[in-house]
Design brief:
Rossmann fold; binds adenosine-5'-triphosphate; binds magnesium ion; 45% helix; alpha/beta; 9 helices
């Protein structure tokens, strides 16, 4: 089966997962894993699974960003990024991909996504998962205080980001915004999308750093100058 056929098939399976979940989503705990996912890599998946298990979350919704306001480099087409998330998550019943942000034409802000999710999943408790780097930057987000009103935040440790500094920042945010944020140790995986893109640019291997199907997708679409 070609990778395009696989994407089409998985798209349908994922939509079914999503619909089923919307109908049974009262009093549940949803983890949100947001990101540019350019491309998604194994650390994203490992963190989501680790936190789902630790916090007994019912499902993790992966939300690839549409047109993120903060990234100024040339970002890969949002549907390619979405497809790669789809290919990575389909074999985990507790992972679902949401197209809530990629569907939007204008810039996407987390606050709008959270409001939207609150409408869809009315009684759900939302846990927004970030890495320690993202929580340190959160005050650059739109309507930062409102984000904290709508969701709990879980900040995963990240190699290269000082735990001391991250914890200080978390304490400051909790005091300033009455925010609900927890820092959680996750097994360190020093992988970033930037590293993956650089490896590909230099024709170096990314095997085992991203799921096999993501690697296949990248090569078949010649993303990140691979295969040139
Ligand atoms: P880039 O290098 O392009 O910024 P990235 O690897 O940081 O890519 P993003 O899509 O920016 O990936 O990140 C989505 C979320 O995952 C963010 O909250 C980020 O902090 C978190 N994250 C990504 N990689 C890791 C990692 N290795 N450990 C902990 N958190 C991570
Ligand atoms: Mg990042």
């Amino acid at each position: 089966m070609t990778i395009n056929n696989l994407v089409n098939e998985y798209f349908i399976v994922n939509q079914e997962k999503l619909k089923k979940f919307e109908n049974e989503s009262n009093n549940i705990k949803i983890g949100i894993m947001g990101g540019t996912f350019d491309p998604i890599h194994c650390a994203h998946l490992a963190i989501a699974e680790f936190i789902r298990d630790n916090y007994k979350l019912d499902k993790i919704l992966f939300i690839p960003s549409g047109n993120p306001p903060h990234k100024d480099r040339n970002i890969t087409d949002k549907y390619d990024r979405y497809n790669m998330v789809l290919l990575s998550t389909i074999n985990n019943d507790d992972f679902i991909v949401s197209d809530i942000e990629v569907k939007r034409e204008d810039k996407t802000y987390t606050i709008d996504t959270l409001k939207n999710l609150k409408q869809i999943y009315k009684d759900a408790e939302i846990y927004f998962i970030t890495g320690a780097d993202a929580i340190c930057d959160i005050e650059t987000w739109k309507d930062v205080e409102d984000n904290f009103k709508l969701a709990n935040f879980i900040a995963a440790t990240r190699p290269g980001i000082s735990l001391l500094i991250a914890n200080e920042k978390i304490k400051e945010l909790k005091d300033k915004y009455n925010a609900n944020i927890e820092s959680v140790y996750v097994p360190s995986l020093d992988i970033s999308s930037t590293y993956i893109r650089n490896q590909l640019k230099r024709n170096k291997t990314i095997r085992y750093l991203v799921p096999e199907l993501v690697e296949e997708y990248i090569h078949s679409k010649k993303l990140y100058n691979s295969g040139e």
